[in-house]
Write a structure and sequence with these properties.
By secondary structure, the protein is mainly alpha-helical. It has a domain of about 50 residues. Helices cover about 30% and strands about 0% of the residues. It contains three helices and no strands. The longest helix has 11 residues. The N and C termini lie far apart (about 55 Å).
Length: about 80
């Protein structure tokens, strides 16, 4: 079947409690929605999209590529 995320499609289905008691200590786990948003799931995964590309170059940052001086030959 179709797998739906937590976008507009799911708004009619929200009828369970979001702030529930913690199982281990009995406190109200108020940050449960924030934890769910921050994890990498069906949503955007904005950070993890770029990790494989950065891994290939060894996570180097702030450097500039050396100039390739072959522009004159192409335009002639």
């Amino acid at each position: 079947g179709n797998v739906h995320g937590n976008g507009t499609w799911s708004f009619g289905k929200r009828r369970n409690k979001t702030h529930t008691l913690c199982v281990s200590c009995g406190r109200h786990n108020l940050s449960v929605k924030a934890i769910r948003r921050k994890t990498t799931r069906i949503g955007r995964m904005r950070y993890l999209c770029h990790v494989p590309r950065r891994f290939k170059t060894g996570f180097r940052e702030g450097t500039e590529a050396a100039p390739r001086n072959k522009v004159a030959a192409v335009s002639a």
